[in-house]
TrEMBL record:
<dbReference type="Pfam" id="PF14497">
    <property type="entry name" value="GST_C_3"/>
</dbReference>
<dbReference type="GO" id="GO:0006749">
    <property type="term" value="P:glutathione metabolic process"/>
</dbReference>
<feature type="domain" description="Glutathione S-transferase C-terminal">
    <location>
        <begin position="123"/>
        <end position="192"/>
    </location>
</feature>
<dbReference type="GO" id="GO:0004364">
    <property type="term" value="F:glutathione transferase activity"/>
</dbReference>
<dbReference type="InterPro" id="IPR050213">
    <property type="entry name" value="GST_superfamily"/>
</dbReference>
<protein>
    <recommendedName>
        <fullName>Glutathione S-transferase C-terminal domain-containing protein</fullName>
    </recommendedName>
</protein>
<dbReference type="InterPro" id="IPR036282">
    <property type="entry name" value="Glutathione-S-Trfase_C_sf"/>
</dbReference>
<dbReference type="InterPro" id="IPR004046">
    <property type="entry name" value="GST_C"/>
</dbReference>
């Protein structure tokens, strides 16, 4: 039998729920995960009803039942989902931060799929530098307006926003992400920070 999160019999309820905008969400995450990656900023920008909850002492029991052992973000009426990226993509689509056509969707997916992984030294010497170089250039080519796609807030901006904070922390002593050195990347952070609706 399929896990309840992937049970095909839930498709109709899920689809009905996905079109509603007045849902209430409970987002459960550990404090070390910042703003639950992009989940809380997306919900805040959408004006969704949001309650942040910290895992209690029952979290190990819940974790064992959760898909892939991930604590979930829960829209109380119908949906339980785990895995930050699938939650983020779902919410971005639901609230209009994903794309308005296939071209934009492909562009967003391209930027979102870039990642940085490995130990600190590997990151600093490799994937972080590559991410900074290519994204800084793309953002400049897009007019240094603080957005990856056109001039609007999308899932790619939310993902970069979270990554910028993570990179600032990881590379604090290396000064890789600085306003003066990475002006176009910094503009993404400022664009999300300055959007009053994106505060969780």
């Amino acid at each position: 039998m399929a896990h309840e999160s992937f049970d095909p019999s839930q498709a109709a309820v899920f689809n009905e729920f996905s079109h509603k905008k007045d849902n209430t969400f409970e987002v459960c995450y550990f404090a070390i995960h910042g703003f639950a990656t992009v989940t809380c900023p997306i919900l805040a920008a959408a004006g969704a009803k949001l309650t942040n909850i910290s895992p209690d002492d029952k979290w190990q029991k819940e974790k064992a039942k959760a898909p892939f052992g991930e604590i979930s973000a829960d829209g109380k009426t119908a949906l339980q989902a785990a895995e930050p990226d699938s939650i983020g993509r779902y919410l971005a689509r639901k609230f209009g931060f994903y794309s308005s056509n296939l071209f934009e969707e492909t562009a967003i997916n391209t930027f979102v799929s870039q990642g940085a992984s490995g130990g600190e030294q590997v990151l600093i010497e490799g994937s972080i530098i590559t991410w900074i170089i290519y994204n800084e250039q793309h953002l400049k080519d897009n007019g240094s307006n603080g957005h990856f796609v056109d001039d609007k807030l999308t899932y790619a901006d939310f993902k970069a926003y979270f990554l910028i904070y993570a990179l600032e922390f990881i590379t604090a002593k290396k000064d890789l992400i600085l306003h003066e050195k990475t002006l176009a990347i910094w503009k993404v952070k400022e664009a999300v920070d300055l959007d009053p609706s994106a505060k969780a």
